[in-house]
Amino acid sequence: MPHIKNALIRYRILDRAIGNKYNPYPSKQKLRELCEEDLFGSTNGSHICDSTIEKDLFAMKMEHDAPIKYSRKYHGYYYTDENYSLNDTPLSQEDLESISFAVNTLKQFRDVSMFKQFGQAIDKIVDRVAVESKQPLEDNNELIQFESAFSEGSNDFLGTVYEAICKQMKLVFVYKSFVSNSYTNRVVSPLLLKQYRNRWYLISYDSKKKSIRTYALDRMSEVHMANDKIDLNHNFNASEYFKFATGITVFSGSKPQKVVLKASSVASKYIKSQPFHNSQFIIKQNDEYSYFELHIFIAEEFIMNILGFSGEIEVLEPVSLRQEIIERVNQLNKSYSLS
């Protein structure tokens, strides 16, 4: 797929260069350099060779009816029809199906405040694909139903938060505690927007507490950008920060723990298809059980995941997690008056 994608991008670059009336008759070398510079940021020929350009030109002629000719007089390529453009080429049925799927995905975000500015563009794509396919795009909704993408109220400030991150400006807001329901004023340096379980979170740096803090957007209000630049006194790296997380919770300064799970044959299939963490691997397995090992931060999200499998998963290590699960099960028994 990446090779096909790069080829399509090269076709667009070649089309733009050959149809450029202000710099006509580009040579094969010039076309190669343009493609390589746009795709890889270099022109030394280490990524794209002349033969690739030759194959691309041939493919454009065969697949897109591009009227490409070579001028011996000017030592370069040109279109015999000066009004030709690859952008005017009709979409194939495969193209239409791929775009239809992509547009249906985009339509989830049409009414989200952060993406409303793109609503008109999405509508134009919907209409264009509908005309090309001679079938209303709405029909695809009967075949595909996406999971709801946003929790109530969590998307109201996406645009403001995103803008603050891009402009590296501090963010001011009022935050409601999930535990005490109390409200506090916050001034933070926004670093990252992260979505987990259909809820948006802001990962930020708190200058006063000198630590990375996480805030749920659906518990924020009165959000606005400050006039101050963010505090760069941190070494935040998103990939490293969430390296051992199974959700949104990270224990800064803590070490990940080794977890060993025993799962029934049914639960094992789910865990294999959707691992708890990328460190997960199988220690051993038989017809009845599979044993998994992973190295993670043991947070509430992971405990809830384990409990969601009921008796299909048993925690073997560490002892502290096993004991926590036992206590939760005992509490569950009490809630249902089973003991």
Describe, in plain words, how this protein is organized in 3D:
- It is extended and about 90 Å long.
- α1 crosses α2 and α1 (2-18) packs across α3.
- It is built from ten helices and eleven strands.
- The model has no long low-confidence stretch (mean pLDDT 83).
- The protein has four domains: 2-88, Arc Repressor Mutant, subunit A, CATH 1.10.10; 93-142, no CATH class; 158-241, SH3 type barrels, CATH 2.30.30; 257-335, Alpha-Beta Plaits, CATH 3.30.70.
- The protein has 339 residues and is of the alpha+beta class.
- The protein is 36% helix and 24% strand.
Task: Note the main attributes of this structure.
339 residues; alpha+beta; Arc Repressor Mutant, subunit A; SH3 type barrels; 4 domains; five-stranded antiparallel sheet; 10 helices; 36% helix
